[in-house]
Fold this sequence. Notes:
Blueprint: E1 2-4, H1 12-27, E2 33-36, H2 45-61, E3 66-70, H3 78-88, E4 93-97, H4 100-108
Parallel strand pairs: 1-2, 2-3, 3-4
Amino acid sequence: MLHVWKKEAHYDDYREPVKASLEMLKDHAGSVFIVDARNGFEDVKEDVEWGFSYFLPELKKTGCKIWGFILPKVSDIEGEIDLWTQEIEKNFTVIRGESYADVLEKVLHE
């Protein structure tokens, strides 16, 4: 499952696309969740709390075990990525790559 952020989004504009990805993951149990965050942004506090308390537990229920991030080697949002990675790693393997192909290659060797 590939989730691509094209522009900054908050509250419902953030949560609705995330919920849509979650629904697709429920239909394809055990899939890998890959987030293209090359156009990423800093989340507002409420969206981080929602992501940690709602999205991540729901994602775990889908059987997903791997979360991939597509990011450049150094990103403008490293602090945001570090925050999410620390929480995600509690239940998922996190793989970071510079492209979709890069992440998939690393997933295959996981």
